Amino acid sequence: MNKRRVLISFLTLSILGILASTYHISPSHSSFTLTLDANDSLYQVSEDIVLYGCLTYNGSPLSHSLLAVEVTNPYEDPVIVRSVQTDSFGVFNLTFELPPDAKLGTYTAYGSTSYMGEKAFNSTAIFVTVAGDIDSDIDVDVRDLYFFARAYNSRIREPSYIAAADLDNDGDIDSHDLSLFAEQYGRSERFSR
Question: How far is CA 31 from the centre of its chain?
Answer without folding.
Answer: 20
